[in-house]
Amino acid sequence: MVGQAALKRLGPDLVAGLSVAGLVLPEALAYAGIAGVPPLAGLLAAIAGLLTYALLGTSRYAIVAATSSSAAVLASALHPLAGANPGQTLPLAAAMVLLAGLLFLLCGLLRLGRMAQFIARPVVRGFTLGLALIIAARQLAKLCGFHATQSALGPVLLELYARRAEWRADSLLLGAGALLLLALLRRWPRLPGTLAVLVLGGVAAAALGTAGNGIALVGPIGLGVIRPQLPALDFDTWLRTAELAVALMLILFAESYGSMRACALRHGDRLDVNRELLALGAANLAAGLLQGVPVGAGYSATTANESFGARSRLAGGVAAMAVAAALWLLRGWVALIPEPVLAAIVIFAMRHAVSIEPLRPYLAWRRDRWVVVTAVAAVLLLGILNGLLAGIAVSLVLLIRELTQPRLTVLGRMGGSHDFIRLGAHPEVRPVEGLLILRPEEPLFFANVEAVLDNAAAQLAAVRGVRTLVLSLEESPNLDGTCVEVLGQFAAQVAREGCALRLARLKDPVLEVLARANLPGLAGVALSGASVDAVVASITQA
Predict the structure, then answer these.
(1) Looking at 366, 400, 434, which one is the last position of a domain?
(2) Distances (CA, A) of 135 to 71, 72, 348, 351, 490
(3) Can you give the pLDDT at residue 360?
(4) Is beta strand 64-66 parallel, antiparallel or unpaired with respect to 295-297?
(5) How many Cβ atoms sit within 10 Å of the Cβ of residue 339?
């Protein structure tokens, strides 16, 4: 009876885990190919990522294994690093994954869980579309029977045309058949269609003797001695690798947290974002020590786990054991899988990403349209890694532009109420006689404080009969040293105009730092954490 109850409780996770393994296994092989490393690197990374996250993560649906975007970023980063020495590819890849894992851990310990928000969503959407197009084009080359050497979309398409004499009809037919079968198997979403296609692809390879006919296969997977190890690289190489690991970590976190959060919102779950950073860091450290590819919570595997009925992180642990068993028992069969079949699986997985649907809202809202276009164009024209760095730069420029624009709102009283809102927002909003009430709409910090207060000084000079200037700093949770210094100078400037300065709605850290500074004109009654209404009342009743 107890055994039946336990089986009933664990059954959904067991079924989901086995089903997910059927998806993760072919993806691990395919994404290792995208990264340009041996298939074993993808399989070991999947096992390490799934097990580590099952122990440390907080999302009950996340499947942490190899992802297409991180594999593509890794391949793009490895190309200039490895240069003419392909023997260094695997150590360099492991070093980059290890450093990305360390960055995850550092950010988790520093509680920087919201850093993914520094990459604007339009940039992520545009990058994803451009990346999917490049990945699909490169896999199309494998479908044709050769490996593309270019990394940007235009050069890849030109290479496809230039090497048209190398196209193989049998490879194209095999890949096209795999694509058709994948499309047909979509009608049964709970069926592991990718695994079925792999099995049939291996059977076809064995029956047709494709190795002898020249169609590329995965090839033998030598297990050898699998043990944790650090790459033997010199200090300068580690340093150059670290620069690229930052970009890898950012795209992994943006992709992973987006997938986790989407599932959490659908089910009302809570995520600890800083613990997620630690879990992803540990997962990538484990993958890197085993010389695996980077791992993250890919959208397709995570949503598949959800649809298969998983209830806890046990499903990921079951999937890891199933992949490990397949690696141990079925590696001879895995070696016979044709590369065109793996290419077909990747192209099919890209079908959702190669769509403008996620971009339509920005076009309809007329917001961030040029940002989206720039992100797509950067990836397509500059390649994956440079496109990603350009996208991150665009995000930071957007943030800086938003924070440094000196937006200042003039407030007035709403009728006879206690509410103070923007003048002109309603016919009943009126200014208070003798007062000018201003509210900065961005947090004050070193880059915008002078512009905001210069604007405030201009507003004060434009209004006659002002005896007191009230500045509501509700948007500023804290002040840096530059802000404190500039506020002191502004108080002196206001005093020279024969006007008093009062600060309202100050947060506790702001009150504390200004009290310690004890600047002329910014002490005592000039500082208040009370509402604008309370500060105005104290001025008018004095």
Answers:
(1) 400
(2) 10, 7, 11, 11, 55
(3) 85
(4) antiparallel
(5) 26
Longest dimension (CA), the chain: 97
CB 437 within 8 A of CB 420: yes
- What is the DSSP-derived secondary structure letter of residue 366? T
Q: Residue 345 and residue 201: Cα distance in Å, rounded?
A: 11
Residues 541, 525: Cα–Cα separation, whole Å: 14
Supply the range of the domain harboring residue 460.
408-540
pLDDT at 2: 47
Domain count along the chain: 2
- Residue written as tokens 């990394």? 151
Task: Specify whether 158 is located in the same domain as 290.
Answer: yes
Assess whether pLDDT exceeds 90 at residue 197: no
**Is 93 found in the same domain as 217?**
yes
Strand, coil or helix: 239: helix
Beta pairing partners, 66: 295
Mean pLDDT, the chain, rounded, equals 86
Q: And the tokens for 63?
A: 């499947």
pTM over 0.70: yes
238 and 120 part of one domain: yes
Read off the pLDDT of residues 261-307 as tens digits, 9 standing for 90 and up: 888 888 888 888 899 999 999 999 999 999 999 999 988 889 888 88
The whole-angstrom separation of Cα 53 and Cα 43 is 15
Distance CA 153, CA 7 (A): 50
**In angstroms, how far is CA 53 from the centroid of its own chain?**
17
Same domain, 387 and 435: no
CATH of the domain at 449: 3.30.750.24
Question: What is the pLDDT, as a whole number, of residue 210?
Answer: 52
Cα 486 to Cα 490: distance, rounded to the nearest angstrom: 6
- End-of-domain residue from the set 356, 377, 400: 400
